[in-house]
Amino acid sequence: MADARIPIHPNWREEVVVAYEFKTDVFSSREGYETRSALREFPRVTTSFDLVLGRDNDPGWAGLFAANLAKEIGFPDLPRKVLGEAQSGTTVSGDFDDHVFETGSGVFVKAWGKSIHTTIVSNTKTVLTVADSFDADPGDEILVYPETYGRIEGDLTTRHVTSTAGSSSVTMLAYAEQRRVQDLIGWEPVQWYRDRPVLLLAPNWAERVEENWSRPEFSMDPGYGKPWFVPKTKSPIRVSSYAILIRNKEEADELVSFFCYCRGKQASFYAPTWVDDFLFKSPVYSGQTTVKVKGQSALHLAEGSDTYKNIAVRAGRAMHLSGIVDIYADGEDSELVLAEPIPSQFEGATRASWLVRKRFSSDRLELAYRTDSVAEADIKTVSVIETFPVIKFDGFEFTINSDYVTIGSSKDIKSYELNTVDGYNIQIGGDFLE
Question: Where are the domains of the chain?
Answer without folding.
Answer: 4-185, 192-383, 391-432
